[in-house]
Amino acid sequence: MRVEVLGPLRVVADGRTTDVGGPRLRALLARLALEAGHRVGHRTLADALWPEAEAAEGPENPVSALHSLVSRLRRALPEPGLLRSEPSGYRLDVPAEAVDALLFERLVRRGHDALRSGRHAAAAEHLSRALGLWRGDPLADVGPLPYAEAAVVRLREVRLGALEDRAEAGLALPGEAPRAAELERLAAAHPLRERLRTLLVTVLDAEGRRAEALAAYEAYRTRLAEELGAGPGPELRALHLRILREESAPEPAPVPAPRGNLRAPLTTFVGREDERRLVGERLAEHRLVTLVGPGGVGKTRLASVAAADTAGRAWLVELGAVTEPDAVPHAVAGALGLRVSTLVEALSVTDTLLVLDCCEHVVDSAARLAEELLGRCPRLRVLATGREPLGVPGEALCPVSPLTPEAAEELFTDRARAVRPDFSPTGEVARICRRLDRLPLSIELAAARLRSMSLETLAGGLDRRFRILGGGSRTAPPRHRTLRGVVAWSWDLLTGTERDAAERLSVFASPLTVAAAEHVGVTAETLYSLVDKSLLETNGDRYRMLDTIREYGLERLASTDRLHGARAAHAACFLDLAERAEPHLRGPGQTEWLARLSADRDNLLAALGHAREAGDTGTAVRLGAALGMFWAVHGDHASAVVHLRPVLRASAPCPAHGSPGGPGHRGDAADADGSGGSRQDTNGSGAPGRAGAEEDSAASGGKDDLVREARLRAAAAYLLNATFAGELTDARAVVGPPPDASDPVGAFVAALLAMAEGRSADGTAALEPHLAHPDPWTRAMLWLARSFLDGTAGDTGFGPKDVEHAVAAFREAGERWGLSMLLMSLAYARAATGDTGEAVAMLEEAQTLTRELGTHHGQRVWLAMAHVDTGNSDGARARLEEVVAEAASIRQVALARVCLADLSRHDGDLAGAGRHLGLAREVVRDGEPPDRALYSAAAGYLAAATGDPEAAARHLGEAFALADAMPDMPMLAQVAVGVADLLLRRGEPERAARILGTAHALRGGPNPCNPDVARLTRDLRAHRAAYDRASRLTAGEALAAVRAERDGLTAR
């Protein structure tokens, strides 16, 4: 996210500009942006926004008003989490270069320093880029606030100095002298500024316009005398005297010995301000600094820029074209215009920086030469670049990483406009840069492609990046003209063992551990070697391969007969991990193993995909069964359905044979340390553990039996997740006929299939024999299934009791996910009956459990909704605003906005409610049925409140259909309340009271603390009898009544 204040205030993220509210919000954002990355105190901000001049009209408590304003600003920003709360203040957490005013001042300082040290080309580049950031008057739409006025004065003064410096730099560069007309305009605007007048007179004289030069001097001298009683300074007087004598400009001093061979850049240098500063600091402290990183990451450009920033001579030696190690000294001597024999003597007389670029293919020779020269030339420093370190004593490393997202997008936009001046960035730019690993060379090659294709075509073609990203600069080294050339250069420098390892590792979809690498035949030593050669990046104890390098490795692997074997080894590795983890997800070890699986989430899904593509049904079924609880605990129910559906369709259904370990598992499958083992572990029921289960399977048919048993557990996992995702409509087609219900797994599957087909009684009958199962987790899941069936049957009396049984069993098992989920369910039930004290206690415990699991981000929206039903709207709002501010998940932010829309509507802020729903619409409309139902219900309530009964009926009808199909009794009750609200607004209070009563019957209580229920109950007091009659209906009768009302709603 970038904040631009050098003109009207703009916030830019993902190529889109965001409008930031009114002048007070803009003033707050601008004040924070001017100190980006630093805390600004509450009092400082309050004084800036409500200065003393406005104290009489300002808020009574400015700090409190500030907090409210910050909440509004967070909602307006595209990345709310970047506005962070600090002790006694707030901080805009963006780098300085993300604020144009701060970047401007940094570039001006760098340009001024370059000008003073005689580096005119570097000065011109920095200053031109700085001045190009101005779009108009700074802080133009912030308002007349003292802090803004002071900032504007300062920025204008800095800009004027930058214009003068740029003009002076241009005078020293061929073809870049400033235009007299521009200087005349500036001099007229600042008539007493002597440096401007000196530059103007110099340029007029240089253009042969001596009379005009003398007139400009005389006008300035006269004005000084009349207004100040003073005269021009000595530099301008000397210039005037020279022109009067018609003397030529002084002869230039003799050309000094070359200060180096660094070429003036042809393109702007984007981003990398921190790395540039770090290289400078390292060079000041160390005599040998090496920039290391993968090909195309921008090491050469960074080295050139950093070298230009240094004082003294700087020589660039390009080693990329050197083919023989012995030729390295000759390449260095040739770049300096010397003989090899005179290198040491020449480099000993003055401070010199030697840039050895692209050392990786001659690393041994470059290292020997650097060590020799540094040892014999005390005034020499060396800056090297390469894929790996030189390995010389005293070497300081500067790892060069891909660009930041903001810098990558700026680079793409800059290069795209070079080939298409009308280019306007969109959100596709961010996605393209991310797909290209934010490597500068890849980005520049991609931007150049816009000469011949649209942005959308380019984005769609990146799956074939090596074909599409060619045709780079004709003057670039061959290895930098295509993306394939860059990667192939690095690949060819590997040993045979390293190449084989890199190809094997390309099957990993996300960072890997040493153990995982060894599982596919790559040793730890080879892994470390690939890190040294920049083919892998490290992050803690994991190793990551850039997608560009990974795709090249896969392409190489696919050209041999080793791809299938590598993928099979990868799938076996993650099947082993998933099956070792699965039993621990059902008990006290849940948090540790959830974290381990989460770190390998992409690898687990890739393994599942590889097994399916290879037709390895056994591995796919076993892996799907093992991941069922992982998806459930994470709340990724839709993902589970998507991945398990094809696995189950591709495998044959079968009756249950295996151990009675419980729904979705096959007993305690590993020892306590997760290592597996050969002994037979047992749970309280004597259910065989993993080794015992495999031995039993071997005795009764071996691997086929193991797969059949896993298929049953995969079916249980599918049905569990599909229930939560509201995706049970095709359950029979996916799972097949009901299995034998003689063991708990089969009973669980049979019960949920029966629920999907509306046969609740059959499902309950399948569960009954197993409800006293001795294993607590198994017992909990069976009671959970029974509570589902109660809800489907409309039995609001037994549902909470079944949930209480499940809660007790989950507590006994030490399992947090099921316990937290059911505590929220019970809290809803308690709130519905008015028992808010117990409901709040349950919610607090549920929140603690989800925080321990690390899944609280996914649960906070539902917790907040439950708080609304307990009457704690302020607490709900605080939690929802946290979700939006942290932006941990697009889906969760969208759901939070749906709930915030309801809260805004309760407060009478209908416009705010509409804004929240508008921001959520795109995400939610393609989401899971529960999400869509929640959105449609909120949209229905809002449409009724804004006087659009037709839209309200349509939205509420959609919400009812989604909730009815799941079925979701709490949501059905919520929709019924919305229907009652709409009927009351239509002038039908008797019907409204009756439907409000059916909502009571659906949820099993009046839900008195819910704001909508409380309002309607109050407004329908005169129709209490109708409400009471409907509230005594059974849930099934109430559901039928709401269905009938829904069917006739639009007609009325």
TrEMBL record:
This is Putative ATPase. The keyword S-adenosyl-L-methionine does not apply. Keywords: DNA-binding. Belongs to the AfsR/DnrI/RedD regulatory family. The lineage of its organism: Bacteria, Bacillati, Actinomycetota, Actinomycetes, Streptosporangiales. InterPro entries: BTAD, OmpR/PhoB-type_DNA-bd, P-loop_NTPase, Sig_transdc_resp-reg_C-effctor, TPR-like_helical_dom_sf, WH-like_DNA-bd_sf. GO terms for biological process: phosphorelay signal transduction system; regulation of DNA-templated transcription. It comes from Nocardiopsis sinuspersici. One of its GO terms (molecular function) is DNA binding.
